[in-house]
DNA sequence: GACTGTGAAGCCATTCACAGCT
DNA sequence: AGCTGTGAATGGCTTCACAGTC
């Protein structure tokens, strides 16, 4: 595995390819070309080949890629060959929905704990997971080494939760609050800002009228 | 307003700037420099100035930007000066959470209808919004001209829902299902793939160990 | 002195186009 | 003939650096 710097856009696409391949594989297809993958996910075939080339030579010239093999390679590249533990802070509407989101389990992410600061929520259950007080975050993080943290609390509380996560040793954070969070350089953080996405649609709708 | 092609990354940042400015404005700050904005949202000051320059000259050399004015400009650029209507298809965990998500209302997005295909859900209420059968989508879309559609159904059903939305005249779609959807060129579509985001974290966590 | 606006430079990602293999 | 892998060309975004303004 080359240490070359990989564009983030490539990683996003690899994740999309892998899900597309899972689907194709389920249909029993053995071999697939870069062009077919490209059609399936809406990119160019050159893009598919370039993306894969960062990580090795997975195909056969004149033939294409073996679906099962390529899928395996992608899952390995993405680090999805073993299960990841996930800790969610915030058991509001969004946090609850994320806790029970089947899409995570399908891809090997297991929610091991949900925490909230609201005393009325503590002790309630989401599926089989009991909501814990946020004061127990450090303890829970320690018990689940290298877990991924998800922040699903209101904007005002999000930075504080991030700080606590970092202190508890969490190295990767997915932030659903509409705030840009400050974290040390060695922490991997991604923001999923739901209204930003609507606002981009709003921008393009507006632009059409001009 | 110039017709120059604007990078999508710029639009995303404008949305982030606007929310940061709303926060600063609430604190009563009158004037702000590109450097202060940059610090607040984690980009370079040159980036902030370049982004704004696509749309005009909003600042005063030697002084900075008037917070209220700049905020107003950004909201106008993003098309957020009037309310957008939003139609959500899928009243599962995620659809329900999105329907009641306060962040949308704060930014002028109003959920006017929620639809589902499950007969057991029809007639139930989310906040004050009654869940309608998905068969009424065309009718609801017609009654809410230029509404934005949100897809929050399982992967297998998402393409069908997208087709129906397009036929019903919806021009912008936010897709939460983990599938790449095929839509006509004139439709604006964005994907928010929740597990892709976790998988990117997984990739970077894995890379650290190498 | 402070800060914006912007052409130019630098950098990074995507597309092209073709040699190489089956 | 079909398809991959990849160097070269292109295109686009970001950073630099400084002239212009207050």
Helices and strands in order:
The structure is a homodimer of 210-residue chains.
Chain A: H1 8-26, E1 31-32, H2 34-41, H3 45-53, E2 65-66, H4 67-77, E3 84-89, H5 93-99, H6 102-106, E4 109-116, E5 125-126, E6 129-133, H7 137-143, E7 148-151, H8 155-167, E8 172-175, E9 188-191, H9 194-209
Parallel strand pairs in A: 3-4, 3-7, 4-6, 7-8, 8-9
Antiparallel strand pairs in A: 1-2, 5-6
Helix pairs in contact in A: 1-4, 2-3
Chain A binds a DNA duplex (22 and 22 nucleotides) through helix 3.
Total strand segments of chain A = 9
Report the uncertain regions of chain A.
Answer: none
Q: What is the element string of chain A, with H for helices and E for strands? A: HEHHEHEHHEEEHEHEEH
Q: Largest interface, per-chain counts?
A: A-B, 61 and 62 residues
CATH superfamily of the largest domain in chain A: NAD(P)-binding Rossmann-like Domain
Polypeptide structure, described:
Two copies of one chain form a homodimer. With 210 residues, chain A is an alpha/beta fold. Chain A has two domains: 3-77, Winged helix-like DNA-binding domain superfamily/Winged helix DNA-binding domain (Arc Repressor Mutant, subunit A), CATH 1.10.10.10; 84-196, NAD(P)-binding Rossmann-like Domain (Rossmann fold, 3-Layer(aba) Sandwich), CATH 3.40.50.720. Helices cover 45% and strands 18% of the residues of chain A. Chain A contains nine helices and nine strands. The first copy, chain A, has a seven-stranded mixed sheet, with helices on both faces. In chain A, strands 1-2 form a two-stranded antiparallel sheet. In chain A, strand 5 and strand 6 form a beta hairpin. The longest helix of chain A is centred in the N-terminal third of the chain and has 19 residues, at 8-26. Chain A is globular. The model of chain A has no long low-confidence stretch (mean pLDDT 95). Chain A binds a DNA duplex (22 and 22 nucleotides) through helix 3.
């Amino acid at each position: 595995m080359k240490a070359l710097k990989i564009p983030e856009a490539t990683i996003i696409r690899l994740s999309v390819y892998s899900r597309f391949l899972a689907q194709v594989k389920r249909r029993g297809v053995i071999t697939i070309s870069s062009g077919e993958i490209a059609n399936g996910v809406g990119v160019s075939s050159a893009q598919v080949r370039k993306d894969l080339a960062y990580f090795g030579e997975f195909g056969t010239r004149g033939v294409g890629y073996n679906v099962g093999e390529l899928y395996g390679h992608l899952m390995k590249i993405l680090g999805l060959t073993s299960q990841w533990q996930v800790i969610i802070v915030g058991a509001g509407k969004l946090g609850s929905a994320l806790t029970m989101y089947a899409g995570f389990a399908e891809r090997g992410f297991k929610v091991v704990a949900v925490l909230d600061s609201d005393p009325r929520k503590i002790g309630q259950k989401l599926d089989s997971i009991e909501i814990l007080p946020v004061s127990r975050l450090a303890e829970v993080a320690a018990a689940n080494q290298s877990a991924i943290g998800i922040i699903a609390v209101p904007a005002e509380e999000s930075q504080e939760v991030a700080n606590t996560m970092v202190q508890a040793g969490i190295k990767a954070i997915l932030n659903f609050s509409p705030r840009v969070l400050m974290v040390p350089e060695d922490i991997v953080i991604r923001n999923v800002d739901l209204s930003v996405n609507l606002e981009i649609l709003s921008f393009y709708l507006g632009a059409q009228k001009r």
